[in-house]
Structure formats: C-alpha cells, structure tokens
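[Automated response] Your request has been received and processed.

Submitted sequence:
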Amino acid sequence: MKKIKENIFSYYLTFVSILIVVLFLSILITLVYQSFPSIKQFGMDFYTKDVWNPVSQEFGSLSFLVGTLITSLLAILIAIPFSIMISIFLGEYFKEGIFSNILKSMVELLAGIPSIVYGIWGLFVFVPFFRGIQMYLVQNEIMNIHPFGRGIFTASIILTVMIIPYAASIGRDVISMVPNDLKEAGYSLGGTRFEVIKKIILPYCKSGIIAGILLALGRALGETMAVTMVIGNRNVLPKTIMDPSSTLASVLANEFGEATNLLHLSSLVHLGLVLFLTTAIVNIAGKAIINRGFRSG
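Generated structure:
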C-alpha cells in the first residue's frame, strides 16, 4: 500500500513538473506566433528604431526598451541599500518583540498593496512634488526640461517603494537563519556587532540577498499600472531621467484594447514577447549567480 502511494505521489509530481514546462512553452509559442507578422515586417529595426506611429504603420520599440531598463535599474539601485538595511534591522537587531512584529507586518502589507493604489498615491503625492522641483530647476536655469512632474524618475521612485518589501522580506529571512555558532565565533574573537554583520552574516547570506534583489528586479520590469499612471506615456526616446517616457508594460496597457489593425496588434504582442524574454533572461542570470554563490560558499 505504501509503495502504491509513493508511486502515485511520484507520478503527480512528474505531471505537475511537465505541466509547468508545457505552460511556459505554450505562452512562448503563442507570443512568437502572434508577433510573427511584426517580426517579418520589421526584423531588427523593431529593436533599433524609436518611431511608434499606428497611423503610418511604423513600429519601433527602442524608446520603450530604454524606458523599461532605466526605470527598473534606477529603482533597483535606490532600493538595494534600503532593503539590505531593513533586512539587517529585522533579521539581526530586532528579531522578536511587539515592535518587530508590527514592522514585519507593515513590510508584508506594503508588498501586498495593489499596484493601482501605488499609482494613485504617486499621482497625487509624488507628481506634484516632483513638478515643484522641476519648476525650481527650470526657473533657476539649472536644467532645461518641461516641468510635467511625470517621468522616468517619478516612476522609478514609485517602483522603489513597491519592490523594497520583496527584497527586504527575503533578506530578513536568510539573515535570521544564519547559525548562531558562526556569530558567536565572531564575537569570541573580539569582533564588534558591525564586524560580525559585515564579515560573517552578509557573506553567508549573499546568495539569498541577491535572490531577493533579482525577484524585486523582475517585479520592476513587469510592473504596469503604477508606472502607467506616473511615467507620462510619451512614445519618444527620453533625453533625461526627468522626461516623460513609456515602458513595455505601459504601452501594452494603454494601446492593446484599442488596437484594431493586424500589424499594430502584432507589434504589441511583439512587445510582450520582448518583455517575456527579458524577464526570463534576468531570472536565468539570477539563478546562475545564486548557484555560483552556493558553490563558492
């Protein structure tokens, strides 16, 4: 009887594993098939041109690629120090207690807030704030920009707030699992708490911390509604981080429901394919980095 249960469970796990692969391949095949007219029409020009004009049937994704990469990378660069500090604070300094539980709950709550709520908050709080800063820069002739308030930098700040809880939660978990024997050995050798964190805890947890950062980067790359509401949705190549722009996800959100022409629709699916492959590459690279960290550790 036990052998039969083990076989059934083994078959079930195999079936689920195969199902995941089939789902992945079906999504990829669907995106490639639906975007084939755009691939056939534009070829590599789709990635190197920044003209996006449904009227003249000219489609190039360069401006959206640049907008996506700049907003995501800027957001992750801002989020890294904050997420690591929060992870250390909750994973090492305040592991238990009422204050720690409240703070942990707040971090988890921030991760669960819908993106549309972040977008509304950014629209009514950050956009006027940055518009005031931009007007000051223009009036004092520090920068020659249009003070819209919406733009790449505003979207990056919203993304930063959204992705910090993801990286911080994973970082906190891995830091709290560092063996006490290692920390006690560091203290017994005369190390201060800062030195133990710097030379023992962080090196021990680097793979887990990197995993949290890459998970946050994946969230930033695919974020749609919050970015759509504050980035300005301008289909041109940005010159500065203050300029309005668009991302791959925001263009899909804005135009997919209104696309009636076959080539326009195919080009939008092509953008989805690019976003899908970009996210997959980031995840594969992250997995390689994590595995390398485990081998070196």
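Summary generated for your ticket: The mean pLDDT is 84. The longest strand covers residues 52-53.
If you did not submit this request, please reply to this message.
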